[in-house]
Amino acid sequence: MNRLNAGKLSLIIGEVPLTVHFDNLDFLVENRDRLMNFITAEHDDSINIYVELVPYSEFKSALNDLDSPIITKTSKHVYQILWNGLEGEFSMEEMVGKLKCSHHVGVNSFLRIIFSLVLLEDKGFITHASSLIRNGKGYIFPGKSGAGKTTITRLTEDSILLSDEVSLVKKSNNQFKVFGTPFWGELAIGGINTSINLDKVLFPIQDGNNYLKELKPLQALENLLPNVIFYYNDNELEKELFELCNEFVNSIPQYELHFKMEPTFWRCIEC
User: 259-263 contacts: CB < 8 A, separation 24 or more?
Assistant: First the structure.
């Protein structure tokens, strides 16, 4: 891959430093606008990702119609990644990624894939969930599309948005924290680059009444795992992720949140 750089963006996401190098200035600017909240001063110790912009037509048609990425471990530490409009690889040993893509969504998708892997080494994971800070407390709302993740963020104006789509959870100083991410959903707004200890985990269910139903750890784990983002077919890594998620549901109070389409549901969360 051509490593001639038009520029680079130094980022911090979930306390993980990385630098994204671009071969096209306009493409850098397009991605900068999406990643703005996570740009930081240059740093030496980081993941490096080298991005080459290529026309969408150059990708094989089979790579433009995939529901999920195809990831192949080509050596002990190197993963090859193929998905809609992107083709790349990532070395866990060197912490270097190489990416060809045709759109800024390709960079965002590649970062999600990489983070689902590198966070495990840091006792963290990403999940389909919205997350907020409200009145000094952290909340996460895991759920698939249509569960109400974005609806909850729209109904909660008096809060700090961490993400409306993909949230980052990590154990830090023996506490599970939720971090803001640039991985947005329908709101098309990046989260704020901050973190907070989690107070509750709430699985949203749209209903005619507002109430919480406490979940036992096993019930919560069964609800959480389908929402955790992890693309790798690796028994050892999957076991490590499972054990982390099991610790998570045993550490933080877990509930079903049955809610009406109005902000009054916060009364039962904060009571």
Answer: 259/148, 259/152, 259/204, 259/205, 259/206, 259/207, 259/210, 260/206, 260/207, 260/208, 260/209, 260/210, 261/151, 261/155, 261/206, 262/155, 263/155, 263/156, 263/157
Give the position of tokens 């433009």. Answer: 64
Rg (Cα) of the chain, in Å, rounded?
Answer: 19
For the chain, give every domain's residue range. Answer: 7-122, 124-270
- Residue of 38, 40, 18, 22 lying closest to 30 (CA atoms): 22
CATH code for residues 124-270: 3.90.228.20
140 CB burial (10 A radius; 0-12, 13-18, 19+): buried
Dihedral angle sign, alpha carbons of residues 208, 214, 218, 223: positive
Distance from first CA to last CA of the chain, Å, rounded?
Answer: 55
CA atoms within 13 A on the CB side of 183: 27
pLDDT, tens digit, 9 for 90 and up, residues 3-47: 457 899 999 999 999 999 999 999 999 999 999 999 998 787 789
Residue 219: how many other CB atoms lie within 10 Å: 15
Note whether 56 and 103 are within 8 A (CB): yes
Report the C-alpha gap between 119 and 228 in whole angstroms.
12
- Which residue intervals of the chain are DSSP H helices? 25-35, 104-118, 149-154, 217-224, 235-251, 266-270
- Flag whether pLDDT at 89 surpasses 90: yes
Calculate mean pLDDT across residues 112-141. Answer: 96
How many residues in the chain?
Answer: 271
pLDDT of residue 56: 78
Single-letter amino acid code for the residue at 191: G
Residue 188 pLDDT grade (very low, low, confident, very high; cuts 50, 70, 90): confident
